[in-house]
Specification:
The protein is of the alpha/beta class. The protein folds into 2 domains: about 1-290, Carbon-nitrogen hydrolase (Nitrilase/N-carbamoyl-D-aminoacid amidohydrolase), CATH 3.60.110.10; about 315-640, HUPs (Rossmann fold). The protein is built from 21 helices and 20 strands. It has an 8-stranded mixed β-sheet. It starts with a strand and ends with a helix.
Length: about 650
């Protein structure tokens, strides 16, 4: 189970109501033909008999036949290295119980009993609210049954069985199971489909898996169940931490698989304040049975789960638009709060024609609207110097004019040239001093002009640049309020694109300017342009692609994953786009820069926390400025062994 990945599945076999031998055969075939790497396979509730048998559940011979089928299933799947869960009725202590049997290598690990019975089930079944055991001659052992029963192969691979109705109960047992350490909730179901029922189930799975930082494997009864009064869709779902990983087609039999990330769930619980409270600790001390088992797990699992390239960006297009609108509003409201607190009604910022300053400008415009101020209260300054191209300068001017802001062009060539004379720097020496002097001059100009006219200097630097330290210390690194400080570069692209689409119907020219800004290579424009006047200095050629760095940043800071695991995920996410050597090179660069550049983040200006990753020393990241990166680089190097 390398890196915490575990393959799981949900199966809905073809069944015939009350045809126990046929059903057992279908279950056996499904187990035998299961993915060889599948560690846990969940079948629907009462799948051995069918869930719609009605008064046949009152026939003793019928119940006995179900148990004989269970023995057959155990015998014929004994060689399969997979834990699977099947359902059947059983008489225990004079009560008919709806049971989910957890099996592995021809043995029963335990039998979970359904507690919450619907009106139809109450006609036949009884709940059983404690745990007990019974002796079975076929297995020649005492078998634990009841609720709650929890199962554990190791600290990560641990699960509980929660029936559909038990999951929907006002106080559901999955909470106790998660607090007891279970990372997986197996949900056998025989729920009929009605209008809106699927949405209800998926909403619960999404919410509970997010709240409990758990994975849910939901297997539902399907075609083959009696349609006398009901319809069964056979829709199966696998959720992890609020995200749907896999879903079956409606009214189709078969098996769905995915790889769940148990270390991700563990990391989320470690970082969730609610999981470190006395309440969580005391709740986990309840009365329950933890049943241990052993199995061989593939340490070289080839991932089949989809790994998103942009973890900061939603995958659904509609959700992206909603997210972008929300972020703009959050940034603007944070800026409004600061402006009101310091009794300021004017904004000033450097507008370069790049992505970051464009977003800061859009936020300032929104803040003006919220405060009821004219947009002329925004003073945008474009400050061309040695590397500025006409493309970026013109875009900044056109953008400011289109939004009704003040725009001034102030060349800093003379002042920087004079500064180089003062310090004895050769203009032909394009070293770091040549670059940083321009950035610092721009910041000084904005600060001084802001003081002169009573404006707040709005910062433009983003989360990705802060992570890499790609900012000039006391240059673009500094501002009076950094509205972009927790927005990564990959997400900024989407926000600017959202704004371009939003204004397209109102002003096609404005939309065109925003789209050209999106198409402009990311650059600080600190080195002279090429002979044809295009940008010579491209950031991503120097520090690496931002989509890779944002990927590394999310998993390193947000989840604390080992560099080797991040490398493995990146290979899967960017397969066909970057080769292994390139990914390794830029991850190594990220680790070096991220650790070494903390000193810049230790004195970064205030700015709103927008997402789940924040590098402010006053917020989520408490990192010493003098830490070494060796341990992380050494761990990454293990992938080369």
């Amino acid at each position: 189970m390398k890196d915490g990945f575990l393959r799981v599945g949900a199966a809905t076999p073809k069944l015939r109501v009350a045809d126990i031998d046929y059903n057992a055969g279908e279950i056996i075939e499904a187990v035998k033909n299961a993915d060889p790497d599948c560690a846990l396979l969940v079948f629907p509730e009462l799948c051995i008999t069918g869930a719609t048998c009605g008064d046949l559940f009152r026939q003793e011979s019928f119940i006995d036949a179900a148990w004989q089928a269970l023995y057959r299933i155990a015998e014929e799947t004994a060689e399969k290295n997979c834990v699977f869960i099947v359902g059947l009725p059983a008489y225990i202590e004079g009560k008919l119980l709806n049971m989910a049997v957890v099996m592995h290598e021809g043995a029963i690990l335990g039998c979970n009993v359904k507690l919450t019975l619907n009106e139809a089930e109450s006609r036949y079944f009884s709940p059983y609210e404690v745990s007990g055991s019974f002796y079975d001659e076929y297995f020649d052992e005492e078998i634990t049954f009841g609720q709650p029963l929890y199962f554990s192969e190791n600290d990560l691979f641990s699960f509980a069985v929660i029936f559909h109705e038990d999951l929907l109960a006002p106080i559901s047992d999955d909470v106790d199971a998660a607090l007891a350490g279970c990372h997986i909730l197996a949900v056998p179901s025989a729920a009929p489909v009605t209008i809106g029922s699927t949405k209800k189930v998926t909403s619960i799975l999404e919410a509970q898996s997010r709240k409990l930082h758990a994975a849910y494997i939901y297997a539902n009864a399907g075609v083959g169940e009696s349609t006398t009064d009901l319809v069964f869709s056979g829709e199966d779902f696998i959720y992890e931490n609020g995200r749907e990983l896999s879903r079956s087609k409606c009214f189709a039999s078969g098996v769905i698989y995915t790889d769940i990330d148990l270390k991700l769930l563990f990391a989320e619980r470690q970082r969730d304040d609610a999981w470190r409270t006395d309440f969580a600790n005391s709740t986990a001390d309840g009365d329950f049975d933890m049943i241990s088992f052993e199995m061989e797990l593939n340490e070289e699992l080839t991932l089949i789960r989809k790994v998103a390239k942009n973890p900061f960006v939603p995958e659904d297009k509609d959700e992206i638009s909603a997210r972008c609108a929300q972020i703009l509003e959050m940034q603007a409201m944070a800026l409004v709060t600061r402006m009101k607190h310091i009794h300021c009604d004017k904004f000033i910022l450097g507008l370069s024609g790049g992505l970051d300053s464009t977003l800061a400008f859009l936020v300032s415009a929104r803040a003006c609207d919220i405060m009821g101020l004219p947009r002329t209260n925004i003073h945008a300054i474009t400050m061309p110097c040695f590397g500025t191209t006409s493309r970026t300068k013109n875009n900044s001017i056109e953008l400011a004019k289109a939004y009704g802001a003040r725009i001034d062009e102030i060349s800093i060539k003379d002042s920087v040239t004079q500064h180089f004379k003062d310090i004895g720097h050769d203009l032909d020496n394009h070293n770091v001093a040549f670059e940083n002097a321009q950035a610092r001059e721009r910041t000084q100009l904005l600060m001084d002009l802001g003081n002169d006219e009573g404006s707040l200097v709005v910062g433009t630097g983003d989360l990705s640049e802060l992570a890499l330290g790609w900012a000039t210390y006391n240059g673009d690194h500094m501002s009076m309020y950094a509205v972009n400080g927790s927005v990564p570069k990959t997400l900024i692209r989407h926000i600017v694109a959202y704004e371009a689409d939003r204004v397209a119907a109102e002003d096609a020219n404005v939309s065109a300017v925003l789209k050209d800004i999106l198409d402009t290579p990311v650059s600080p424009e600190l080195l002279p342009p090429t002979e044809d006047g295009t940008i010579a200095q491209k950031t991503e050629d120097l520090v690496g692609p931002y989509e890779l760095h944002d990927f590394f940043l999310y998993y390193f800071v947000r989840l604390g994953f080992a560099p080797s695991k991040i490398y493995r995920l990146a290979k899967s996410a960017f397969d066909g786009e970057y080769d292994e050597k390139t990914i390794y090179k830029w991850e190594e660069n990220f680790l070096r820069r991220f650790i070494a550049q903390q000193f810049k983040r230790s004195c970064m200006p205030d700015g709103p926390k927008i997402g789940s990753v924040d590098l402010s020393p006053r917020g989520d990241l408490k990192l010493p400025s003098d830490a070494a990166s060796k341990v992380f680089l050494d761990e990454l190097a293990t992938v080369l062994e």
